[in-house]
Amino acid sequence: MLSSRPALLVACLGLLGSAAGVLGCHDGGGPQETRLRPAPVTPSKNAPQVVDDLGPHPADTRVNVYDLHDAKAAKAKKIDPAEADWVAKEHATGMSRWRDVGVYVDGKPVGFLSWGEMPIACKVTWLTERVSTDKRAGTHDLDYRLARKRYYKFTDYLKTAGVDIRKINELHVYGPHPSETLIVTGQQLQSPAANDFLFSFGANTSGKPIPHVKGDFGNGKVGDKINGVMIYIAKKPPTLVANEGLFLDDVQQTGVPYYGEPIRGGVRVYLDDKLATIIKRQDLDPKKAATASDGSMMWPLAAFLTEHGVDLKDVVEMWTIRDEARSEKFSRAELAALTFQANPQAKGGVLLGDQQVRASVIALHTRPLKPADMPIPEQDDE
Fold this sequence. Notes:
The strands form five sheets. The chain has a five-stranded mixed β-sheet. Helix 2 packs across helix 3 (84-90). By secondary structure, it is α+β, with helices and mostly antiparallel strands. The longest helix is centred in the first third of the chain and has 19 residues, at 5-23. The protein folds into three domains: 64-99, no CATH class; 101-132 and 144-263, no CATH class; 267-373, no CATH class. The N and C termini lie far apart (80 Å). It has helices at residues 5-23, 65-76, 84-90, 154-160, 186-189, 301-307, 332-337; strands spanning 102-105, 108-112, 125-132, 144-153, 170-174, 182-185, 198-201, 209-212, 228-232, 239-241, 245-248, 251-252, 267-271, 274-279, 290-291, 297-300, 317-322, 325-331, 339-341, 350-352, 357-359, 361-365. The protein is globular, with a radius of gyration of 31 Å. The chain is built from seven helices and 22 strands.
């Protein structure tokens, strides 16, 4: 048996040599490089199309996908980079259409769910929750601690925003997808169970609002964030079709029913916690502007607000809001003399007065605010 192995090896080498000779054959003289010839590839007719997915990936927090979308939109439209932030947001499509979480009553905007724009009369509901902590090796330390977390009741928010919950037929809380729409009836809103119908913000005092319900409240469909809140009092509410979305008279609703595209951008103006108007740069009339020393256009703020239906008769003070916090206070006399600019340096807001104070939101009040009224983050918010 052992003596036959050399003969077998010689035979194998011979076969390999023959194969090499065949591969090395050519028509002309001299060596020729042998290459693999790729076979033609024809895509299947049923192959999935490439999708430009701008959705957030839960494991990637290095970039803001909404900003990437806006930058891409600006590049596609050949927009000046200095104005890209403003213009792209105003013409955003897809998921970025719902970046500003509006609250609509029968198609009319009445407010927006961001911590900086929360009505000062809407008080926080503190709940105790477990928060993960580092556990020392080799000890019996707990890997959590108890901490307070701020929530807000939907019913409290609606009351302070001027919505009478006794008149509500249905309330729809939009999730990330239309099929994830939480539908709550007016009867449920007036029941004791509504005390556990809450929302919070992703970073406690900033970030997207997140819905919280207990048990089978509503239709039981709860998304991991809120994209919009639709309230129906006099108008017919859309119907939710499983795995498809919302339909109104057999027409699928891709925007805000009875309104259209969701509001995006602009400087919201509130009067005693109620949305009064929105300043949008593209809607400003250049004929009513004066020219600043640097050549920028500026408008008288009080005149603009009055022209847009804001009653300033009883206003005693005005607050600017930016970066989710109330910043500067202006008296009634200062408000009467203020001008505003809406150039790219305002970063989507307006610049007020000679000091060019940036405001993303403006809050008007008919009574002086007390320190206790001011929404201030606490230690548990960190």
